[in-house]
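Budget justification, computational time. The allocation requested in the original proposal was used primarily to generate structure tokens for proteins on the priority list. As evidence of use, we reproduce two of the resulting records. The first is shown immediately below.
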Amino acid sequence: MSRVCSVCGKAKLSGNKVSHSNRKTPRLYNANVQKVRVVKGGVVSSEYVCARCLKSGKVERA
């Protein structure tokens, strides 16, 4: 299972690492995704949820 938020779908982003001499090389920006035990419809399961969804209360934790 990939590290993608199960609530909002947030995942990795790609961009460039820029050095002091302004050279650009590709890099990845990882989302702040935590593995959390979640209650959905009375069933407890562990899913990946991003920090923004956890802080805003979009998820009910077990």
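The second record produced under the same allocation is shown here.
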Amino acid sequence: MDTKTAGKYERRAAVIKALAHPSRLYIVDRLAEHEHCVNELTALIGSDMSTISKHLSVLKNAGVVQDERRGASIYYSLRIPCILNFFKCADAVIQAIQKEQSALAE
């Protein structure tokens, strides 16, 4: 594999790694509905603000979310909403596995 190709897959892996936490997946789902500030996400998730801020930083550094400062608050939104297509695909895989496991159990 050449350097250009390797870089492409490394960047993809970085996005997938950024999503590889249940709280970050939940944040992306909430941001798919509409933008949220850190305080709102903290209340929704039930973690402390520093933890939510860290999750948002990971997602922002991977290019999944973007932020906008408004006064004292920072609002987050999905940068690339097509990430939700990946979630649909993952859900389809999960359903297929569950269906297969149910069939084997019968």
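A brief technical remark on that second record: Residues 65 and 78 are 4 Å apart (CA to CA).
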